[in-house]
């Protein structure tokens, strides 16, 4: 009998209740319908990855010349365009491969997160240890999303109305603000801190808190959905330890 597991939906529920969701639901299908046939989902995923690397290089150079922040913002727009349209194109053209797309998309998202944070830490915009803390926080949340998808059949990529689109927009606004204000530092605890350092510390703390709270909540929920079986009722012989 043929195995149709690769064709079954990845999750029964998809939660993406972001603030800009109405705009994306209106704009993305229109953009997808206007693309030439040779621009497929994999091409768009590659474009998104390229945009992330452009931003990473620009962030690394922006410490010496803040105008590079505009290039970083442009790379984030390209990343949003490719990352948002790859799945939309697959749905519009009815060529969905949900499990393949889930795997490839999340691998590229992880690579993008690592590239962007290391790019910020590679120059003088942000201390590398802060950039790595942000990177760890993002990767932990991505891991949580994947585990929830597997454990309770729910693909959730938004939290309190905030998702990847809002994160990119916030980064673009911050890039523009830093460029407009010019080089700034704050002296505290005997060291000088850039605006990227301060925001990076805030983001790392928020990501850590978000991960801990969400993990506790999901653990309790999954425990209720899958209660502990009585001894000997799980199909395995009961053997006291």
Estimate the global geometry from the Cα principal axes. globular
Give a quick account of the main beta sheet: strands, pairing sense, barrel closure: 2 strands, parallel
List low-confidence stretches.
none
What is the number of helices?
Answer: 7
Strand line-up in the sheet with most strands: 1-2
Percentage of residues assigned to helices = 55-70%
What fraction strand? under 5%
User: Quick check: average pLDDT?
Assistant: 87
Class by helix and strand content? mainly alpha
Instruction: Give me the count of strands.
Output: 4
Rg from C-alpha positions? 21 Å
The SSE string, one letter per element, is EHHHHHEHEEH
Query: What is the straight-line distance between the termini?
Result: 41 Å
Question: Which features characterize this protein?
Answer:
single chain, 241 residues, two-stranded parallel sheet, 4 strands
């Amino acid at each position: 009998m043929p195995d149709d597991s690769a064709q079954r939906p990845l999750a029964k529920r998809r939660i993406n209740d972001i603030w800009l969701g109405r705009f994306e639901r209106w704009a993305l299908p229109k953009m997808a319908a206007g693309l030439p046939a040779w621009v497929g989902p994999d091409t768009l995923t590659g474009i998104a990855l390229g945009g992330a690397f452009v931003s990473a290089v620009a962030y690394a150079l922006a410490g010496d010349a803040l105008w590079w922040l505009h290039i970083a913002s442009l790379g984030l727009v390209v990343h949003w365009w490719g990352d948002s349209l790859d799945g939309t194109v697959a749905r519009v053209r009815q060529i969905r491969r949900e499990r393949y797309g889930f795997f490839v998309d999340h691998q590229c998202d992880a690579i993008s997160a690592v590239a962007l944070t290391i790019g910020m830490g590679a120059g003088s915009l942000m201390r590398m240890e802060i950039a790595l803390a942000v990177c760890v926080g993002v990767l932990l949340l991505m891991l949580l999303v994947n585990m929830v998808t597997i454990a309770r059949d729910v693909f959730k990529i938004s939290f309190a109305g905030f998702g990847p689109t809002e994160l990119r927009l916030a980064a673009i606004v911050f890039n523009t603000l830093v460029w407009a204000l010019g080089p700034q530092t704050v002296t505290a605890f005997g060291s000088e801190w850039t605006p990227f350092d301060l925001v990076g510390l805030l983001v790392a703390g928020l990501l850590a808190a978000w991960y801990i709270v969400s993990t506790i909540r999901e653990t309790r929920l999954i425990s209720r959905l899958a209660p502990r079986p009585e001894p000997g009722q799980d199909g395995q012989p009961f053997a006291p330890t």
